Amino acid sequence: MEAVDAVPVHLNGKVAIEDFDLTVVEAENGDKQNEREIVLGKNVHTTCLEVTEPEANDESTGDKEAYMASVLARYRKNLMERTKHHLGYPYNLDFDYGALGQLQHFSINNLGDPFIESNYGVHSRQFEVGVLDWFARLWEIEKSEYWGYITNCGTEGNLHGILVGREVFPDGILYASRESHYSVFKAARMYRMGCVKVDCLVSGEIDCADFKVKLLANKDKPAIINVNIGTTVKGAVDDLDLVIQTLEESGFSQDRFYIHCDGALFGLMLPFVKRAPKVTFKKPIGSVSVSGHKFVGCPMPCGVQITRMEHINVLSSNVEYLASRDATIMGSRNGHAPIFLWYTLNRKGYKGFQKEVQKCLRNAYYLKDRLRDAGISAMLNELSSTVVFERPIDEDFVRRWQLACQGNIAHVVVMPSVTIEKLDDFVNELVEKRSTWYQDEKARPPCIAADVGSQNCSCDLHK
Ligand SMILES: Cc1ncc(COP(=O)(O)O)c(C=O)c1O
C-alpha cells in the first residue's frame, strides 16, 4: 500500500504514528528546499488575565466587582475593534441574537442521541431535530433515511464522518487531497487508519488522475474518501461527480467505497451557487458536514453532521445512565447552538441564504479585481468566495487584518459580514504599505505562480 507524507501508515500490521508536537519548522515531502518557517502567534501567557482569590471584604467594598466590570468593558471594546478588522477566517460576524438572551440562564445540554430524549430535561432536541430536517432537505435525504446531530464544529463533523466510514469499512484506506483540512489527517491518526494523500490541481481541487493511480495501487482495500466542498486555503471545491466516476473506473463498486463530504466552509453556500455541482444523498455519498459558525453566523462554534441511518447503527450503543443512545463523538453537547441555528434558518430561509451567497461572490470578485488592478497577484476559484493573494511581508499587517497565511500566500474569505467598504479599507491600506515594503529595488514581491497559476501572478517574471 502506498502512503504519502507524515501520516500514519500501516506497516505489516504495525502502525507508525506521527507525533503531535507543535514544531516550528515543517518539512514538506522531506524536501529541504520546501522547508519553511511557520510563524506562530504571540504567547498569550504573558498577557493572560489572572484569576485572583476573593478578599474577605470584597462584598462590602465592591472593589472586585468593579475590577471585573472594567476588565469586561475593555475586553468588549477590544472585541469590537478586532471584529472590525477581521478578514482571514471564514466566519460571518454579522448577526443579532438579542432575542435569545433570555436563554443564557439555562444549562441546555443535548447529551446522547438527538432523536431519543435523555432523562436530562433541560435540552433543546426539538430545535436540533428541526435544524437537522432542514439540512436533510437541503441535501436531499428522506427523514426516515438519515441520522445526524449538531456538532461542536466542522472538525467534529469530519471526525464523525470518517469514523462512520471506518466502521463501515474497518480495513478501508482513507484518501484525502493534500489541501484537505488538518482535522482529516488528525482523524487518520486518531483512528490509526492507513491514509493516502492525493495531489491537487493548482486550483486546490483534488487531482483525479493522481487519485486513480493511488486507488489502483490499493485495489484490494475499500476506499474511504474525504471530498472537500471548499478547501481551507483556496476554497476549492472537489469535483464530487469526477471522484465517483474515478472510483467506478478504478473498479470500486458502491459497496466498496464511502464518501464523506467536508462542507465545513461551503457546504451551505454551494447549493445556492449557480452551475455548482450538487452535493446530494441521491449520489453515493455517506455523510456531509458543515460548520455552523461560518457562513450561517453563530456566536459559538458549532456544526451539522448528516449521515445515512443504515450506517449509524454500526456505531451506536444504548446507555442506561442517559436513557438514550450514544453515537456522537462528544458526550455533553451544546444545547444552545441548535437554537441559534434554528433562529437564523427561520429568519433567513433558502431565499435569504441565496441572496447572501450572491453578495459574497460579488464582493469576492470585487476584491480579486481590485488586487489585480493594483498589480498584486491574486486568484479566486469560480465557485468560491476565498480570495488568495500574495502574503503581506509585514506580520503586524497580517495580524491587524487577521489574515490566514500559508507559505507565500494569504487569503480573505468573503463572508456576509465583509462589506465593500471594509474591502476598500483593506486594499487601500495594503497598497499603501506595500509601496513601502517594496520601495527598494532589491526587495521584490514573491512569485506565487505555483500556488495561483502564472496567469494570476503579478511577480516580475509573470506580470
Ligand atoms: C475545509 C475545512 N474543513 C474543516 C474545518 C474545521 O472546521 P471547524 O473550525 O469548524 O472545526 C475547516 C475550518 O476552517 C475547513 O476549512
UniProtKB/TrEMBL annotation:
Domain of life from the UniProt record: Eukaryota
GO molecular function, one term: carboxy-lyase activity
SUPFAM superfamilies membership: PLP-dependent transferases
Catalytic activity: L-serine + H(+) = ethanolamine + CO2
Positions of post-translational N6-(pyridoxal phosphate)lysine modification: 294
Keywords: Decarboxylase, Lyase, Pyridoxal phosphate
Listed GO biological process terms: carboxylic acid metabolic process
Required cofactor names: pyridoxal 5'-phosphate
Family named by the database record: Belongs to the group II decarboxylase family.
UniProt-recorded name of the protein: Serine decarboxylase-like
Organism (species): Populus euphratica (Euphrates poplar)
Gene this protein is translated from: LOC105138456
